[in-house]
Specification:
Length: about 325
């Protein structure tokens, strides 16, 4: 590995010494520091906001795909030193992110993908993602030159024990401008949501259905893992206490992949829950399986957090 230049080294230190599992929204600016010698022009922060990232794959016309993430957002706009080219800023951040074990979602150099038009259409005028933010006393014209003349673009992802960080860097060919956005999303850890018979009773009474939190499957399969035992025990207790009632057990997926496969997977997971409940002495004749696939999402499928919410099994009250 080639030794890092001084500015790259300073950036890398800023990333790797921070306790990523405990960053606050106010600390996000330090996650990826500015290129050495840059002037800070403006900052925007939000406790919860959506951020559209440009990602691979590229289509036949070299237009990037998009990914929408949600979480705490910290956005900073800088002016690089006059003697530093957009390409130097691009390569420095790219190497630093790679060395800090970020997964690059898109690394687009000038002319190698249609980043200029894509950035302008998503983040620019009128009132798009970046243009609509209040960066304090920063010039409105600078925001326009940043998103209207993007020449280089980076997006990256780093997952820690309890959070996921997304980084977006836009580098303009005009006025020496570039921006660094960092979005922080919580990662749901298995076992943190406890399902109790009383919770099921309250949800069924008020809504006619309940999400069966705590049921876990092997990735892409209908095989229930051992971590699901506490939830299965709670479900079994509720069903035996309400033996006169009938229910649908409904499986749901996100919208990733083939539709028929998702429907089949969702039905298989619903069946698997019923089969597992037999081991808890539940009279499963009161249960009917159904696979809804991606047809009834609870959240957007354009973010990782939304997809996680949509992958679920529900208990739905039947009236006959």
């Amino acid at each position: 590995m080639k030794p890092l230049k001084r500015n790259q080294f300073l950036l890398l230190i800023a990333i790797i010494v921070l306790p990523l599992h405990s960053l606050s929204a106010q600390d996000l600016e330090s996650l990826v520091s500015p290129f050495k010698g840059s002037t800070h022009l403006g900052n925007y922060q939000s406790r919860f906001a959506s951020l559209t990232l440009l990602v691979v794959p590229l289509d036949a016309n070299k237009n990037p795909s998009t990914l929408i993430v949600e979480g705490a957002l910290n956005s900073n706009i800088y002016k690089r030193p006059a003697e530093v080219s957009p390409f130097e800023v691009f390569m420095s951040y790219k190497k630093v992110l790679e060395n800090a074990d970020f997964d690059l979602l898109l690394a687009c150099e000038s002319g190698k993908c249609n980043v200029k038009q894509k950035v302008k259409s998503i983040y620019g005028y009128p009132k798009k993602e970046l243009e609509s933010r209040n960066y304090g006393s920063m010039s409105i014209n600078d925001k326009g030159y940043l998103v209207g003349w993007a020449s280089h673009y980076l997006s990256a992802k780093k997952k820690t024990e309890d959070k996921t960080y997304f980084v977006m860097i836009i580098i303009s060919s005009q006025r020496d401008l570039y921006s660094v956005d960092v979005s922080e999303t919580n990662t749901m850890r298995e076992g943190t949501v406890e399902l109790a018979p009383e919770l099921l009773k309250a949800k069924i009474k008020s809504e006619g259905k309940a999400v069966l939190h705590g049921i876990y499957f092997e990735t892409g399969k209908d095989i229930i893992t051992d971590q699901s035992k506490p939830a299965l025990n709670a479900i079994a207790t509720y069903l035996k206490d309400n033996a006169r009632l009938s229910f649908y057990v409904v499986g749901h997926t996100d919208d990733t992949g083939d539709l028929d496969s998702n429907i089949s997977l969702s039905k298989g997971r619903a069946k698997a829950v019923i089969e597992e409940l037999k081991k808890y002495s539940v009279n499963t004749s009161q249960l009917m399986d159904y696979g809804a696939g991606p047809f009834s999402p609870l959240s957007t499928n354009q973010s990782d957090g939304g997809k996680s919410i949509n992958r679920r099994v529900e208990l739905v009250l039947r009236l006959n």
